[in-house]
Structure formats: C-alpha cells, structure tokens
C-alpha cells in the first residue's frame, strides 16, 4: 500500500508540472510594516480552479488506469476539492460525480458544472457524505477520490510547501496554514520535515470547527460536536481530522483559532491592501496574523492563502463591511 512521504511529494511535483500553476510567493511592504516582520504569502488563490486542491486531485486522477478512467471518479466536497476533481477529470478524460452540501456556495457548484462534473447534493447536518459517495462509487464501479485521506492527494498538496521552500529567499521561522481534514498541512509537514525541520508549522482553524486542535490536545482523533450555526469558512467545516493526515500533523507546533469576524477583517485587508480576492477558508492564516494570534515581530513567516472561490454576494458584504457574523 502506498504511504504518503516526502519522496512522494517530489514525485507529485513531477506529475503535476505543466498542469498545476506554480503560484507566486508575494511580499507586501505594508503588511510587513504592520506586523514588524517579513510575511511571504503563497497565493493559491491563483491556482487552477481557484484553490490548492487541484494539486492533489490531479496527482491522484492522472494515475488512473485506462480501465479506471472508463468507470469515472466520485468525490465528496464542500466545493474546492469538488471543482478540482471535476477539472482534473476533464483534463484526464474521465467523468466525475461530486457529492456536495446543499448549502455550498453557488460559485463552487457552478464551477463544478462548468468543468463538466455532475453534482449530487446532500444535507451536511443530517446525512453522511462519505456514505453517499461510497454508495455511488460502488454502484458505478467508480474510483473514490477522497478530499484528504488519500496518500496521492496529500503528496500533491505537499507541493505547495515544496514551492515555498524553493521560492523563499530566506530561512522561514514559521509557516501558517489552514487545517480542516488536514491534507494540505500534512503535505506541507512532510515537506518541511525533510527540507526545513526548524521551521515551525502552525495550523489555523475556525473557532467553531477546531477538530484538529482538540484532537491534538487529546492525542487522538476526535469528532467535533454538531454546531447549530455554520462558519463562513465553508472549506474548513470538516468535523474530524483524517485518518492518514492526523499522524503526520502531530508534528504541528500548535493550532490557533479565528472567529468569523477576524476572517472577514482579513478578507477586507487582502482586498483593500494586498489586492487579492481570498475566500473565508483561505484567509484564516492571514486572519491569525492580523488578529495577533501568532507572534511575527522580527520573524519571517510564510502564509498559505489556500483559495479564492468566494460567493460574490458574501464577498461584497464583507468588503463593504456589511457582514454581521452569526451570534454577533
């Protein structure tokens, strides 16, 4: 059985070359001045399909046999993995059925359809996306492409960390990355453990969905209890760390959390100062810095802006400061 490794990350980099975008590492004098240190922003908002997820999806789907391609793929996702799988499937020449929450942002559903994917919706609070996806895959004989618990997906996401290491012009003191199921930050952990073991890796989660934080504190994978009000960070609403990702992510220095209000403030800052469109789940690491959750004075910090697929109406409300967080 294939196990995720740094060697696999290097192989993934070769596999996705020419298909995934080598996104820029951006530095803003204004942000540096505000935080008193250097901040290097990895703009995965500019990735194919608008988020880092394309890396892992393409690395997995491009390895299908001809027989597997004929049967198609199935995935479950709140949106970014969904679009990535649909986009990769189209490039590889196979079909894709995507199981998505009924409350997914319309921009993400439309993105899946535009890439040729077939959408099946479900109620994220009452139904199991895993069960639905597995049932469809079994009925069709399709390959299930999991959003994070797949070694090829983890290794594909790890190329984000590999590129950061290659693009940075100075040693990194710390790197911040959003954590949900943990695929991206696990891939980054594999890379930094091999290339820059002294760089601290800090996970960031929505305050209402801190499953990685509570699991690391307990020393085992815990399921976050159901919440009545969703976070605006729809991409980070997984309630339990991945079975494959959690052991890798034990090397995290720590996990910090941010509120929806702090995320909204970071999105406004990204748009107004950095001139970048960042979705809520993609802005959590920047939010942690701006809210003072992580020390930056005199340090060099890498931040992953993981996606830019934000609902236009929500984005307009946030940047015009008309957004009121739930419970506020």
Summarize the helices and strands and which ones pair or pack:
Elements: H1 6-16, E1 25-27, H2 29-35, E2 38-43, H3 53-61, H4 66-71, E3 73-76, H5 80-92, E4 96-101, H6 106-114, E5 118-122, H7 129-140, E6 143-144, H8 151-167, E7 174-178, H9 183-195, E8 200-206, H10 211-218, H11 245-248, E9 254-258, H12 260-274, H13 284-290, E10 300-305, H14 312-319
Parallel strand pairs: 2-10, 3-4, 3-6, 4-5, 7-8, 7-10, 8-9
Antiparallel strand pairs: 1-2
Helix pairs in contact: 1-8, 3-5, 3-8, 5-6, 8-9, 12-13
In round numbers, the mean pLDDT is 95
Radius of gyration, CA atoms, in whole angstroms = 18 Å
Q: What strand line-up does the widest sheet have?
A: 1-2-10-7-8-9
Specify the biggest β-sheet: 6 strands, mixed
Structural class: alpha/beta
Q: Give start-end ranges of low-pLDDT stretches.
A: none
Gap between N and C termini, in Å? 48 Å
- SSE order in H/E notation? HEHEHHEHEHEHEHEHEHHEHHEH
Shape: globular
Q: What's the total count of β strands?
A: 10
Give helix % range: 40-55%
**How much beta, percentage-wise?**
5-15%
Summed up, the helix count is 14
Account of the protein in words:
The chain has 328 residues and is an alpha/beta fold. It is built from 14 helices and ten strands. The protein has helices at 6-16, 29-35, 53-61, 66-71, 80-92, 106-114, 129-140, 151-167, 183-195, 211-218, 245-248, 260-274, 284-290, 312-319; strands at residues 25-27, 38-43, 73-76, 96-101, 118-122, 143-144, 174-178, 200-206, 254-258, 300-305. The strands form two sheets. It has a six-stranded mixed β-sheet with strand order 1-2-10-7-8-9, sandwiched between helices. Helix 6 links the parallel strand 4 and strand 5. The radius of gyration is 18 Å and the shape is globular. The N and C termini lie far apart (48 Å).
